[in-house]
């Protein structure tokens, strides 16, 4: 299993992986926080564990259990905040240290929350639904907009390709994590949002209200394209699922 990228790239050995996965229930979500070197896992019942490596061993730092199915968990790009989406419409934003900033029950008619994402600047949070809607709220929990991009078609994931944050190279061996560890690695590229649908279509947009999306028909109706990233070619982006689909912009 591989976690992290860039300056903080790590690869877990077999023993460490067994230590992490020595859990009773199936793990359905795994999210790595590069700036703070933490790993979040979520099991099928909705219990979230935040792991941290201390003195060569992985240990549980935080546990969150709302007794409800989690549909998505995502760290903010700077690693300071976490967004949790529950299938019943409950959403929560908290700090990397476990402090709850705000939560809300979204009253949705005949649809469910399927995924969440931070905006490229971490100033907004976006939610996708089973009926093709995007719900946009501020990072402070204020409702901003609700739009339909593909009526009745489920949004399965939303991922930004944008500037990244990495663990500062000089601080890799420190035991105290602060926000100063998050340092920007500039790409000089405009941010890009990939919105993928249950049909296998992927919309590439500059923002959630982009009226002219570039559309990729992947045919991956049975899979979730979970990751979009920049390549060394500044005019190319890639979307990764079971296969790689490239699209020049």
Summary of the model, kept short:
By secondary structure, this protein is mainly beta. 3% of the residues lie in helices and 50% in strands.
What is the topological layout?
Elements: E1 2-3, E2 10-11, H1 14-20, E3 27-33, E4 38-43, E5 48-54, E6 57-64, E7 70-75, E8 81-86, E9 90-95, E10 100-105, E11 113-118, E12 124-129, E13 133-138, E14 143-148, E15 155-161, E16 164-167, E17 182-185, E18 192-197, E19 201-205, E20 214-217, E21 227-230, E22 236-240, E23 244-248
Antiparallel strand pairs: 1-2, 3-4, 4-5, 5-6, 7-8, 8-9, 9-10, 11-12, 12-13, 13-14, 15-18, 16-17, 18-19, 19-20, 21-22, 22-23
Q: Which key phrases capture this entry?
A:
249 residues; mainly beta; four-stranded antiparallel sheet; 3% helix; 50% strand; globular; disordered N terminus; disordered C terminus; repeat; WD40_repeat_dom_sf; Ift122/121; WD repeat
């Amino acid at each position: 299993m591989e976690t992290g990228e860039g300056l903080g790239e790590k690869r877990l050995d077999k023993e460490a992986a067994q230590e992490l996965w020595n859990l009773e229930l199936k793990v359905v979500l795994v999210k790595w926080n590069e700036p703070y070197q933490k790993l979040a896992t979520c099991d099928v019942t909705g219990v979230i564990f935040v792991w941290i490596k201390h003195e060569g061993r992985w240990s549980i730092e935080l546990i969150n259990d709302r007794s409800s199915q989690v549909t998505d968990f995502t760290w903010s790009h700077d690693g300071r905040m976490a967004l949790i989406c529950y299938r019943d419409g409950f959403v929560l934003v908290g700090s990397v240290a476990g402090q709850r900033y705000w939560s809300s029950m979204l009253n949705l008619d005949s649809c469910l929350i399927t995924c969440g994402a931070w905006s490229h600047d971490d100033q907004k949070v976006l939610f996708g639904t089973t009926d093709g809607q995007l719900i946009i709220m501020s990072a402070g929990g204020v409702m901003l907009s609700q739009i339909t991009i593909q009526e009745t078609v489920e949004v399965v994931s939303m991922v930004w390709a944008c500037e990244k944050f990495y663990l500062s190279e000089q601080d890799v061996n420190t035991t105290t994590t602060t926000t100063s560890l998050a340092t920007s690695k500039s790409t000089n590229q405009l941010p890009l949002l990939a919105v993928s649908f249950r049909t296998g279509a992927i919309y590439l947009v500059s923002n959630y209200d982009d009226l002219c999306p570039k559309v990729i028909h992947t045919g991956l109706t049975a899979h979730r394209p979970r990751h979009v990233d920049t390549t060394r070619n500044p005019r190319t982006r890639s979307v990764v699922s079971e296969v790689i689909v490239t699209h020049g912009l």
